[in-house]
Write a structure and sequence with these properties.
Elements (H helix, E strand, L loop, with lengths): L2 H6 L7 E5 L7 H11 L6 E5 L8 H10 L2
Parallel strand pairs: 1-2
Length: 69
C-alpha cells in the first residue's frame, strides 16, 4: 500500500471529493493530482464552494464563472 493509499484510500476509490471554504489554502498542483488519482473514473465528482467568488487561475476562473449562479 502506498503512502497516499494509507492516508486517503485506494486509486479510483471515491465518488466525490468536496471542499468548503478551504481551496485557497491548498497546493493546487499536488491537490489536483491527488483528486485525479482518488476519484472513480470516469464519473467521479469534485465539488468546491465558498462564500465569495473564488479566484485560482484564468482556466479555473473561466469554468467557475460559467457555472456560478
Amino acid at each position: 500500500m502506498s503512502e497516499l493509499e494509507a492516508k486517503i484510500g485506494a486509486e479510483s476509490s471515491v465518488d466525490l471529493v468536496k471542499v468548503a471554504q478551504a481551496l485557497h489554502w491548498f497546493d493546487h498542483d499536488a491537490f489536483d493530482n491527488q483528486v485525479k488519482w482518488i476519484l472513480k473514473k470516469p464519473h467521479g465528482v469534485f465539488a468546491a464552494w465558498c462564500y465569495t467568488n473564488l479566484k485560482i487561475d484564468d482556466e479555473f476562473d473561466h469554468v467557475f464563472h460559467k457555472f456560478y449562479a
